[in-house]
Write a structure and sequence with these properties.
The chain is an alpha+beta fold and about 110 residues long. The protein has one domain (about 1-105): Aspartate Aminotransferase, domain 1 (Alpha-Beta Complex). Helix content is about 40%, strand content about 10%. Strands 1-2 form a two-stranded antiparallel sheet. Strands 3-4 form a two-stranded antiparallel sheet. The longest helix is centred in the C-terminal third of the chain and has 16 residues, at about 90-105. The radius of gyration is 13 Å and the shape is globular. The termini are far apart.
Length: about 110
Protein backbone atom coordinates (compact mmCIF):
# COMPACT_ATOMS: atom_id res chain seq x y z
CA UNK A 1 0.00 0.00 0.00
CA UNK A 2 2.87 2.39 0.75
CA UNK A 3 4.29 2.14 -2.78
CA UNK A 4 0.84 2.74 -4.25
CA UNK A 5 0.37 5.88 -2.14
CA UNK A 6 3.85 7.11 -3.04
CA UNK A 7 2.88 6.85 -6.72
CA UNK A 8 -0.70 8.11 -6.39
CA UNK A 9 -0.34 11.04 -4.01
CA UNK A 10 1.67 13.30 -6.36
CA UNK A 11 -0.94 12.71 -9.08
CA UNK A 12 -3.90 13.89 -6.97
CA UNK A 13 -3.32 17.64 -7.32
CA UNK A 14 -3.32 17.26 -11.11
CA UNK A 15 -7.02 16.38 -11.14
CA UNK A 16 -7.71 19.16 -8.66
CA UNK A 17 -6.61 21.66 -11.33
CA UNK A 18 -9.76 20.80 -13.26
CA UNK A 19 -11.81 22.52 -10.56
CA UNK A 20 -10.43 25.95 -11.40
CA UNK A 21 -12.77 28.63 -12.71
CA UNK A 22 -15.97 27.24 -14.15
CA UNK A 23 -14.63 23.70 -14.36
CA UNK A 24 -15.81 20.49 -12.76
CA UNK A 25 -16.61 20.14 -9.10
CA UNK A 26 -15.05 17.25 -7.19
CA UNK A 27 -17.44 15.61 -4.75
CA UNK A 28 -16.59 14.33 -1.27
CA UNK A 29 -14.57 13.24 0.42
CA UNK A 30 -12.67 16.47 0.07
CA UNK A 31 -9.88 15.20 2.33
CA UNK A 32 -7.48 13.75 -0.27
CA UNK A 33 -6.08 10.94 1.89
CA UNK A 34 -9.62 9.54 2.28
CA UNK A 35 -10.26 9.46 -1.43
CA UNK A 36 -8.13 6.59 -2.62
CA UNK A 37 -8.09 6.42 -6.40
CA UNK A 38 -11.72 7.42 -6.93
CA UNK A 39 -13.02 10.87 -7.78
CA UNK A 40 -16.63 11.87 -8.38
CA UNK A 41 -17.01 14.78 -10.76
CA UNK A 42 -19.93 16.82 -12.01
CA UNK A 43 -20.03 19.55 -14.62
CA UNK A 44 -22.92 21.85 -13.73
CA UNK A 45 -25.36 22.17 -16.59
CA UNK A 46 -24.11 19.11 -18.49
CA UNK A 47 -25.62 15.66 -17.98
CA UNK A 48 -23.15 13.18 -16.55
CA UNK A 49 -23.96 10.66 -19.28
CA UNK A 50 -23.09 13.32 -21.88
CA UNK A 51 -19.79 14.09 -20.15
CA UNK A 52 -19.02 10.37 -20.08
CA UNK A 53 -19.74 10.05 -23.82
CA UNK A 54 -17.56 13.05 -24.66
CA UNK A 55 -14.73 11.66 -22.55
CA UNK A 56 -15.15 8.29 -24.26
CA UNK A 57 -14.94 10.02 -27.64
CA UNK A 58 -11.57 11.41 -26.48
CA UNK A 59 -10.39 7.91 -25.51
CA UNK A 60 -10.87 8.38 -21.77
CA UNK A 61 -12.70 5.62 -19.89
CA UNK A 62 -14.88 6.67 -16.95
CA UNK A 63 -18.04 5.43 -15.26
CA UNK A 64 -21.20 7.48 -15.01
CA UNK A 65 -24.24 7.02 -12.81
CA UNK A 66 -24.98 6.57 -9.13
CA UNK A 67 -22.22 3.97 -8.51
CA UNK A 68 -24.34 2.28 -5.81
CA UNK A 69 -23.98 5.47 -3.75
CA UNK A 70 -27.47 6.98 -3.93
CA UNK A 71 -27.64 7.98 -0.23
CA UNK A 72 -24.43 10.01 -0.28
CA UNK A 73 -25.25 11.50 -3.67
CA UNK A 74 -28.64 12.57 -2.33
CA UNK A 75 -26.88 14.21 0.61
CA UNK A 76 -25.05 16.43 -1.89
CA UNK A 77 -28.14 17.02 -4.02
CA UNK A 78 -26.93 14.81 -6.87
CA UNK A 79 -28.34 11.79 -8.67
CA UNK A 80 -25.22 10.80 -10.60
CA UNK A 81 -21.59 11.67 -11.21
CA UNK A 82 -18.73 10.97 -13.58
CA UNK A 83 -16.13 8.77 -11.92
CA UNK A 84 -12.60 8.31 -13.18
CA UNK A 85 -10.58 5.73 -11.27
CA UNK A 86 -6.81 5.93 -10.96
CA UNK A 87 -4.33 3.19 -10.26
CA UNK A 88 -0.67 2.34 -10.75
CA UNK A 89 -1.06 2.07 -14.50
CA UNK A 90 -2.19 5.68 -14.97
CA UNK A 91 0.29 8.33 -16.03
CA UNK A 92 0.60 12.05 -15.48
CA UNK A 93 -0.12 12.53 -19.20
CA UNK A 94 -3.41 10.64 -18.91
CA UNK A 95 -4.52 12.81 -16.00
CA UNK A 96 -3.49 15.93 -17.92
CA UNK A 97 -5.60 14.73 -20.86
CA UNK A 98 -8.59 14.14 -18.57
CA UNK A 99 -8.24 17.61 -17.03
CA UNK A 100 -7.88 19.33 -20.40
CA UNK A 101 -10.82 17.41 -21.88
CA UNK A 102 -13.01 18.27 -18.88
CA UNK A 103 -12.09 21.94 -19.35
CA UNK A 104 -12.99 21.76 -23.04
CA UNK A 105 -16.32 20.10 -22.27
CA UNK A 106 -17.06 22.69 -19.60
CA UNK A 107 -16.24 25.54 -22.00
CA UNK A 108 -18.79 24.22 -24.56
CA UNK A 109 -21.76 24.88 -22.25
Amino acid sequence: MGRWRAYRDPLRPLLGRAGCGHGPVAVRPDVPRERGGLYSITLPGIADARVGKLLDDAGIAVRTGAHCAQPILARFGLTSTVRPSFSLYNTREEIDLLVETLRQISARR
